[in-house]
Amino acid sequence: MDRSAVIRNAADYYHSGRFLADLDRRVGFHTESVRGKREDLAAYLTEEIVPALAKSGFSSELCRTADNGRNLFLIAERHEDAALPTVLMYGHGDVVAGMEDRWSEGLTPWRVTVRGDRLYGRGTADNKGQHSINLGAFAEVLAARNGRVGFHTDSIRGNTGDLAAYLTDDIVPALAEMGFSSEIVKAAEAGRNLFLIAERHEDAALPTVLMYGHGDVVAGMEERWSEGLAPWRVTQRGDRLYGRGTADNKGQHSINLAAFAEVLAARNGRIGFNMKVLLEMGEEIGSPELTGVCRSQRERLKADVLISSDGPRLSAQRPTLFLGARGIFKFRLTADLRASEHHSGNWGGLLVNPATLLANAIASMVDGNGRILLEGLRPPALPEAVRQALADIVLTPGADDPAIDAEWGEPGLTPAERVYGWNALEVLALAAGDTQHPVNAIPGKAEAVCQLRFVVGTDLQGAAEAIRAHLAAKGFPQIALAVEWVEPATRLDLDNRWVRWAVASIEQTTAKKIALLPNFGGTVPNECFAKDLALPTLWVPHSYPGCNQHAPNEHMLGSVAEEGIRIMAGLFWDLGEQPWNQQ
Ligand SMILES: [Zn+2]
To answer: What does residue 214 show for φ and ψ, rounded to 5 degrees?
Structure first.
């Protein structure tokens, strides 16, 4: 993170209202040294300043010069390194008398009142406001130096400096401490993505794990976070750790690296397996060049298994392992019949209406209950192993989620089977004419953007041809098809020995029955690992469905993070411990 980003963050301490909240609390202590009570003077330090300093890593002590001394002192220290310079900061928490009756109408000494550019209150100027500014700035710079969330790694509109700094200033040194050698790789000079490939090699006879993660995030959406929260710093409230990237994906790979460090230390620097790390900085823009890097760096990325963390668990309470992802087949249907509209009075009944045509074409592909009618877009029958794995998976929407529509989708399937074991054909957007300002005219053109989320076994190669043949056969040859995005589906065999190994390890660590999902309902970049690197793929998510990833107020749950660190430590321990290849 560069100097200007740090100063932006520090200004955010003021603009977000956090400075005002801190100052208001501090002004609230009646710390008049002239006639004040000793308890109030002490409380300012013990209840307010000591905890604030502790958050920045200070140890504090209160002292008096004599037992019945009239003054009280706080001496706090934060020590980083004996080789570094040391700063002493002085301030005073006592104030003059409140003079309650003499403040202007509406103002009072023991509360902060904002009027225009003025923040009124006893001690705002002398001296609580002043040392609060200094402590606030210190905390911001500290957060910027230490926190991964502090890097503005927005890959959509972010600057490449911040994206690179996340790797060079934070991840590479953290990995180096654990004995990794790192290299930052671009697929091409003009590539849009940036990759870190790191390796820690112990012994050619040991198994090798590849861990993937992404350091980029979606936009900060600064103005839309709740009061007191901000995207580029971590704020803890109850069990929630707020900040952009806490769930997706900085928090998740940070958990994995922390667990790795703990096990490495416990094993005295010999962990018992080889580890490779691949971090990309462009997942939120569709992982450009990721497949290319997996192919061109195949030897360097060679491993025995992929263990990664992204996406949500089934629920906050239930540890989850998923083995792949549904694929995406996104396509546009266009009925572009005429260059312009034609009056519906004069031409209605004479001209084919493209909107009517398109609506009927869609209805011939998916019925009014969401059941896919076009055979080429349907998956093969649900495999027995998948049915068994999903038998105990219950989907429970959170407080802010919509209720599940019981009758929607393929008949005879449970909700879990519908989202993890089956295909869904969705209309993402649909347009003809202007619905806000309709005119009496037959539109010239109608358009729909559709998306098939599909599982392994669906004939993707033949999908476009199947749609074209279907449209022609059903009498809609005028509708053009354009395929816009294809992401293949992946699913590791549920019977793979790595799956059995991971399930046993996680269940031993947590004493819970885990949710084993054949694949994730959404998408993670897994094809390049499953196909190009031919790896068994184990995904252990540390987020939960209510995490607000991609929205304001993104957060991670502390309870899930704690369990996640234990799960990963258990997996890393077992990798070095167990006869992993004899299960
Ligand atoms: Zn994301």
So the answer is: -135, 140
CATH 3.40.630.10 given to domain 3-145: yes
Q: How far is the CA of 245 from the centre of ligand 1 (A)?
A: 8
Domain borders along the chain are 3-145, 154-324+491-582, 339-365+428-488
What is the CA(576)–ligand 1 centre distance, in A? 31
pTM of the model: 0.74
Token pair for 232: 């580029």
Q: Let me know if the fold of 3-145 is the same as that of 154-324+491-582.
A: yes
Return the pLDDT at 49. Answer: 96
Q: How many angstroms separate the CA atoms of 93 and 36, rounded?
A: 12
Say what the pLDDT of residue 465 is: 96
Q: Classify 127 as helix, strand or coil.
A: coil
Ligand 1 center from residue 476 Cα (angstroms): 37
Q: Calculate how far, in angstroms, residue 210's C-alpha sits from the geometric centre of ligand 1.
A: 20
- CA of 283 from ligand 1 middle (Å) equals 7
- Cβ atoms of 464 and 483 within 8 Å: the answer is yes
Q: How far is CA 222 from the centre of its chain?
A: 16
* CATH ID of 154-324+491-582, from 3.40.109.10, 3.90.226.10, 2.40.37.10, 3.40.630.10: 3.40.630.10
Q: Is 451 helix (H, G, I), strand (E, B) or coil?
A: strand
| d(C-alpha 441, C-alpha 451), whole Å | 29
Cα(431) to centroid(ligand 1), Å: 28
Query: Distance, CA 222 to ligand 1 centroid (Å)?
Result: 17
Alpha helices, DSSP H, located in 128-217: 128-146, 160-165, 172-177
pLDDT value for 9: 76
Report the Cα 300 to chain-centroid distance in Å. 27
Closest CA to 527 of 487, 480, 563, 567: 487
**Which of 408, 580, 424 is CA-nearest to residue 502?**
580
Query: What is the distance in A from the centroid of ligand 1 to the CA of 248?
Result: 5
pLDDT at position 583: 45
- How far is the CA of 464 from the CAs of 50, 363, 485, in angstroms? 65, 17, 12
User: Do residues 274 and 300 lie in contact, with contact meaning Cβ atoms separated by under 8 Å?
Assistant: no
pLDDT averaged per 10 residues, the chain (length 583): 76 86 95 84 94 83 85 91 90 95 95 96 97 93 76 78 86 94 89 94 96 95 88 89 95 97 95 97 93 95 97 95 96 97 96 98 98 97 95 88 92 96 97 94 97 95 95 96 94 95 97 96 91 97 94 96 97 83 48
pLDDT at 149: 87
